[in-house]
Design brief:
alpha/beta, UDP-galactose 4-epimerase, domain 1, Rossmann fold, 3-stranded mixed beta sheet
Length: 331
């Protein structure tokens, strides 16, 4: 297939692009490089530097491509930032996605895989989280993901779009060969922040809340390896049929606490990683982890990394060999 990938220079996107190229698909990446990295784009893929808000450039790129499908990663993703700048998130995440869908309809591209989020569930009443639980996001970021899912669902009914929303949990890890990994500025994800302490780029890691009703008092999350995410995106695209909307939770089904992540990082790196307690962050659920039964049974996907040690090992290999990220930096 010939696939148009938005946000393909970002963390999850670039791993997704590599997986598509390795499977023999032709890939065109459309990314404004605001947070992605040119160096992260697989050399087998074509890169168009552009923004989804630039309708003329988007239309030109799609018209010239004869695409079979779209894989949509492009979005702002900082939950806390979305609380303070909600309209920026609605414009970029929702309005630009609607533009993308409009251009897909115009160019008769009827297959799409969307990078959604477990943030769509908000504060779930129970764990593990299944797809039939209510969507009740508590942040503008989460609400933008729900809005896009509804736009895809309605497009499926109205004009035959075939779309899959992958609600994944905490993306972590790096490519097994340590040539691709996580580079954000500022960094907000736990694993790279912990490893930055091991690299002596941060003095300590703060644990936000030690009084949760969990085994050790710290928050519990489901860390899904980025290469496993790349694989499920590819499988979803290859199995997508027109006129159908699907949604899947993507995770390991295993909850790991913040303290357990830190302890495992100490074991993997051999470094003392100082930590200190900090107040809870507003809106942080005690536990979030997936029930991946549906995606495993329906798509035949199996995560290769089900132990947090392996995920942290790949992340550590990336960060210690690329302490400054990609050689050229962002853009």
């Amino acid at each position: 297939m010939r696939i148009f990938v938005t946000g393909g220079a970002g963390y999850v996107g670039c791993h997704g692009v590599r997986g598509l190229c390795e499977a023999g698909h032709e890939v065109v990446v459309f990314d404004n490089l605001s947070s992605g990295h040119r160096e992260a784009v697989d050399p087998r893929a074509e890169l168009i530097v552009g923004d989804l808000a630039d309708t003329a450039l988007l239309d030109q790129a799609m018209a010239a491509g004869s695409f079979d499908a779209v894989m949509h990663f492009a979005a702002f993703l900082d939950v806390n930032e979305s609380v303070h700048e909600p309209l920026r998130y609605y414009r970029n995440n929702v309005a630009n996605s609607v533009t993308l869908l409009e251009r897909m309809k115009a160019h008769e591209i009827r297959k799409m895989v969307f990078s959604s989020s477990c943030a769509t569930y908000g504060l779930p009443a129970a764990v593990p989280i299944t797809e039939d639980m209510p969507l009740a996001p508590i942040s503008p970021y989460g609400r933008t993901k729900v809005a896009i899912e509804w736009a895809m669902r309605d497009s499926a009914a109205a004009w035959g779009l075939g779309a899959t929303a992958l609600r994944y949990f905490n993306a972590a890890g790096a490519a097994a060969d340590a040539t691709l990994g996580e580079v954000h500025d500022p960094e907000t994800h736990l694993v790279p922040l912990v490893l930055a302490v091991a690299l002596r780029r941060r003095e300590e890691i703060k644990i936000f809340g030690l009084d949760y009703p969990t085994t050790d008092g710290s928050c519990v999350r489901d860390y899904v390896h980025v290469e496993d995410l790349a694989a499920v995106h590819r499988i979803a695209l290859e199995t997508q049929v027109e006129g159908a909307f699907r949604c899947y939770n993507v995770g390991t089904g295993v909850g790991v606490s913040v303290k357990e992540v830190i302890e495992m990082a100490r074991a993997v790196t051999g470094h003392d990683i100082p930590s200190s307690p900090a107040p809870r962050r507003e809106g942080d659920p005690a536990e979030l982890y997936a029930d991946p039964t549906k995606v495993i049974s329906e798509l035949g996907w199996q995560p290769q990394y089900t132990d947090i040690r392996g995920t942290i090992e790949t992340a550590w290999n990336w960060h210690r060999t690329h302490p400054d990220g990609f050689a050229g930096g962002a853009g």
